[in-house]
Amino acid sequence: MRMRVTSILVLVFGGLVLLSAGGMFLIALASAFDNTRNSLTAILREQINEASVASTAFFIPLEDLGKWMADEISQDRMGVSEPESLKYILAGALSSLPQGEAVTVQFPDGTGYYFDRATETIQEVNWPPEWRVSERGIGPDGEWVLRPSPLDGSHRGAFITSARNKEGQQIAAIGIRADLEPLSRRLSNNAAFRGKELTRFMLFNDRIVVAHPLLVMSEAGTRPTIDTLGDPYLAQLFTAPREEMNLVKDIPGAEFFFLETDRRERHGFVLKEDKTRKTGGTVTIGIHFDQSSGAPEIERLLGTMAVGLAVVIVSVIVAILVGRRAARPIERLAAAAHGVQSQNFDDVPRLPPSHAIELDEAASAFNAMVDGLKERERIRNLFGKYVPESVAQLLLLDEGAGQPQTANATVFFLDLAGFSTMSEKLDPAGIIATMNAFFSDAVDVIEEEQGVVTQFQGDAILAVFNTPVEDPNHAEHAVRAAIRILKLIKTKAFGGQQLACRIGLNTGSLVAGAVGAAQRLSYTVHGDSVNLAARLEAMNKETETELLVADSTRILAPDFPYEHVGTFAVRGRAEMVAAYTIRDLPDVGPAVAPGVGSDVGPDKTAKA
Q1: 522-581: per-residue pLDDT in tens?
Q2: By three-state DSSP, how is residue 274 classified?
Q3: What is the pTM of this model?
Q4: What's a BP term from Gene Ontology annotated to this protein (predicted)?
Q5: How far are the Cα atoms of 67, 70, 110, 195, 258 from residue 177, in angstroms, in the given order?
Q6: Which domain covers residue 457, as residue numbers?
Q7: Distance, CA of 177 to CA of 159 (rounded, Å)
Q8: What is the rounded distance in angstroms from the CA atom of residue 95 to the CA atom of residue 65?
Q9: What is the CATH number of the domain that holds 413?
Q10: What are the contacts of 323-328 at 24+ separation with CB within 8 A?
């Protein structure tokens, strides 16, 4: 059964419809995903904000107490010179603040008072220099510090502000020391995420734990760090790899991420720097939770995604299978066309029949065309064994006429030296084997340099550059071919024989075309430039050189280390001929590309 292209397209469009349905489903899924993100973001934003509110409710009353005392002392309404009177005032002030532990009053000379709420005692203290408030004092908004107490060495939070006279001079520095453990209890209230426990905490300078549900004071009275607290997730906060938390949108002023812990768990963190009060470092409020806390929403979302993805995958697979089946004949045709383009006709497969009428007719026509091309290629290959391939293509295009062409070309004439003497020592088979071995390598070099061998004259080669295929760098390529062959013949034996050769190069006008009888033609070149190349080759005997280059060639290919041999009279020519040779043969490789010359080395200057 054969089908029309229209029927195939109907199937393809059916697949596209399935893809469209999948696309709509993905849009709905994206909406559900966005709703889930909004929900999770709102929960985490609420938790971090509640932690911020709890810390503010803890610190603000202490700050207000410190500022009230500074104002009272500045207005001389508080008798700081009478310790007993001051003790009762401070006891009353701290009675409504359970988080307040102690109050200090420090005068500019380092002396002052320390009131302890627990014992309701007041002591006169002379603070060491490192614990004295600087002469400049603290600003009017006060400052929170977290450092060891000068009395017992324990870490506490302390709000410090200063009382000043009308001239702005510091009268006293007031410190309100806070017990921070109630802050840990406040942060723990209502700390839950989707029914699972959520941990709120506060850090000072990213290391010291100010508040945490596990916070306890050691016997030495020091405050734990994230490494000593006992929270395995907080301990890895700055060491474990972080991963972006894609299911949470922006939380203003906070960073959020998953931590890849050494327990092979993913733990969520939200961190927010508390900039509402001045401190001697940075204060960070944070929460952390197990990834599974958001599992119900995530599992529903993942389930929906799995179903939608399965539908889309099935639709895509069906569309691909249908599309491939429909496109298979076209793919075969394209592959076969590439084979034709590369002219590897024997590797071009025959196109099978197709169910589509139009494609079946195209396959039949294509197969017939390939058969014709194979026959033409067979004739050209057979023809190319007797003439150069470029000439064979030219004659085929010219229907064998080989119309004469005038061109300015470089003629390459090579003759083996001493071949007659060597031939006397070899049998005919050895002579043919030696010549064929040398000619094969020499022709490869000439053709790599874009030259065309037009004749084999006994032990000689006649080649031409720039016809029938144009080559703007024909002179350079001819010189390169001569150098490469001379270097090759010095390093390689042919048919077991060590050979030597002489080469003549000349550039000038010539005529190329098919010459001979109507029944038998030969493609060759004629002209005075051809004769001069042959004579230059012969003159190598007189000059004891291997290569002679006419001045006309040297001018067009100047980038070689030429040596001027002399100016000679040549039979049949009125003017003298200047000849050059290259004694130190430079290293040259094959031509890079048609029409592109190559550098031959640093020495490009002709020697006089």
Answers
A1: 778 999 999 999 999 999 999 999 999 999 999 999 999 999 999 999 887 888 999 999
A2: coil
A3: 0.45
A4: intracellular signal transduction
A5: 14, 15, 18, 36, 36
A6: 400-581
A7: 6
A8: 11
A9: 3.30.70.1230
A10: 323/12, 323/15, 326/8, 326/9, 326/11, 326/12
